[in-house]
Amino acid sequence: MESADRLRSIRDASLALLPWLSETRRAIHMNPELGYEEFETSRLIVENLESFGLDAHAGIAETGVVGLFETGRPGPTIGIRADMDALSIDESNDVPYKSRQPGKMHACGHDAHVSMLLGAARLLSENRNWFDGLGGNVKFIFQPAEEGKAGGKRMVEEGVLEEPRVDLLIAAHVWPDMPAGRIATRSGPSLAAGDRLQIFVRGKSSHAAYPHKSKDALLAGCHLVTALQSIVSRNVGPLESAVLSITTFESGVAFNIVPRDARIRGTIRTHDPKVRAKVAERVRAVARGVAEAFDVEIDVELTPGYPVLVNHEAAAALVETAGVQVLGAENVEEMPISMGAEDFSYMAEKRPGALFRVGISNEEKGFVHGLHSDLFDLDEDALPVGVSVFAQAVVEFLGNSEKYLA
User: Fold this and answer.
1) Model confidence pLDDT, tens digit, residues 127-172
2) Which CATH number does the domain housing residue 19 bear?
3) Is 393 helix (H, G, I), strand (E, B) or coil?
4) Judging by DSSP bridges, how do beta strands 137-143 and 77-83 pair with one another?
5) Which of 320, 342, 380, 396 is catalytic?
């Protein structure tokens, strides 16, 4: 098939899938499942992949699924990944497809990610003529537990990038700060490392009428929170990037008791390993100083989170090329660096990989709320956009792999 005809076919076929993509996304949205609990979502994925004539393997990292498309001719393998899990949020939207599971909601668009990847699998399976003369494979990776439970890490450990060996990876994430119809990507550091911070302050309680007899953990904790805010502003260069956010503070049991204990939690986000180490060292140093000043004990627990997501230059170029081909250059933007974290980074550490954003906002339709909001929703016209970029990236990669694997 000629290149121009194939591009037109990919665009038209993706748009034609919109009703099915919407139906699939809404079925997943109504039945959100948390990390490592995505059993019904996994079943839906397997049923669809098998209906497309693809091999599907479930149970990877508990609930993950992998589908394989083979051209029947030797060549490289491209992997496409989508995450599956929902968040512990009560949905506030009044829509027919509202979550039917109290306290659970697809508030980060993973239902859309699954739908787009299933759409790409269906599209490629139904149009094998696009691969005339091309060799290689496509591995469709449906990953559990992205929301803080490192499902991507487990899938890598359980061999998802092998048999056949994945040579290059791409993934998409919906983005509410960009209009539907557009995508964005970049090469280099793209999303931050996300480390977890937990601090325990231990002092001595007393009656609130006699505070001089206490070692006030609450007061020490308040000073610590304030002091921690100086780390980024006074220790990290203005052209570097770091975020230290304290998000919970727990202390006290009664109005008339000076508290003995306090627990403080938060997150640290960085893009550079040296900055990451510097911030961690300063957190511990500040904690030691506050402990000395207030005569309390302070223990700092820093738990390393997802690593920095570094988009590989060739993988990002593949996404950009495919996006321009199916959407037009005016609809492909450069993705700004984000302080958010993504466990696609575990896969991108092992193989050349790139994540791109798919715009989903539409003010006229009321799709304006951000990720992790109880009012989050998306313009489903964005779904064929992701499908078309996935499909074209596959065809482009298998037809010109030497360009992207050099």
Assistant:
1) 999 999 999 999 999 999 999 999 999 999 999 999 999 999 999 9
2) 3.40.630.10
3) helix
4) parallel
5) 380
Range of the domain at 275: 193-306
320 a catalytic residue: no
Q: Which helix (H) or strand (E) holds 43?
A: helix 39-51
The encoded tokens of residue 126 equal 């139904």
- Centre a 10 Å sphere on the Cβ of residue 364 and count the other Cβ atoms it contains: 7
| Sign, Cα dihedral of 226, 231, 234, 237 | negative
pLDDT in tens, 287-329: 999 999 999 999 999 999 999 999 999 999 999 999 999 999 9
- Which of 97, 306, 346, 404 is catalytic? The answer is 306
Can 380 be counted among the known catalytic residues? yes
Q: How far is CA 109 from CA 50, 112, 135, in A?
A: 24, 5, 32
**Across the chain, which distance is largest between two alpha carbons, in Å?**
85
117 and 254 co-located in one domain: no
25 in the same domain as 161: yes
Whether residues 13 and 81 fall in one domain: yes
Orientation angle between helical segments 110-126 and 3-16, nearest 10 degrees: 130
Q: What are phi and psi of 14, to 5 degrees?
A: -65, -45
pTM over 0.85: yes
